[in-house]
Design goal:
The chain is of the alpha/beta class and 138 residues long. It is built from six helices and seven strands, in the order βββαβαβαβαβαα. It starts with a strand and ends with a helix.
């Protein structure tokens, strides 16, 4: 099973509202390990409500940001993972391209549409589970 890398701000966490509960419910249907990725520094972790998240959080505090492929190289090394071990979804197209440039299968999540159907299809197709989430819900 692949690790699911999840963008933090404007994806898993909605500014001023907290965790996007419908997404959290969807992610909980998968037994895969989840890691929240952010650029946030210590101040922003508090500002964006990232201090009480149900998954492990990884940040490089803008040094570099996710739009730089080095971010993903450092993150993979930190968790002793390879690009083939993970999938990623993110609202920022430049960060998606950055992740893809190091070989991470990635999905651009449209934060305005909140397309959980498309997200579920991406995870079902790429998460490396032997059974899909629909079968586990029964």
């Amino acid at each position: 099973m692949k690790v699911i890398l999840v963008d933090a701000v404007d994806t898993f966490v909605i500014g001023g509202k907290g965790i996007f509960e419908e997404m959290h419910i969807l992610l909980e249907k998968y037994p895969n390990r989840k890691i929240i990725l952010t650029n946030a520094n210590d101040e922003q972790m508090i500002q964006f409500g990232l201090t009480n998240i149900p998954y492990k959080i990884f940040t490089l505090k803008h040094n570099p940001d996710k739009t730089n492929p080095k971010y993903f190289q450092i993150m993979l090394k930190h968790f002793n993972l390879h690009a083939k071990d993970v999938i990623y979804f993110e609202h920022n197209k430049d960060a998606v391209a950055s992740a893809q440039s190091v070989g991470i299968v990635s999905f651009h999540y449209d934060a305005n549409k909140k397309d959980l159907v498309g997200l579920k299809k991406f995870i079902d197709k790429n998460a490396g589970n032997n059974t899909n989430a629909k079968a586990r819900r029964k």
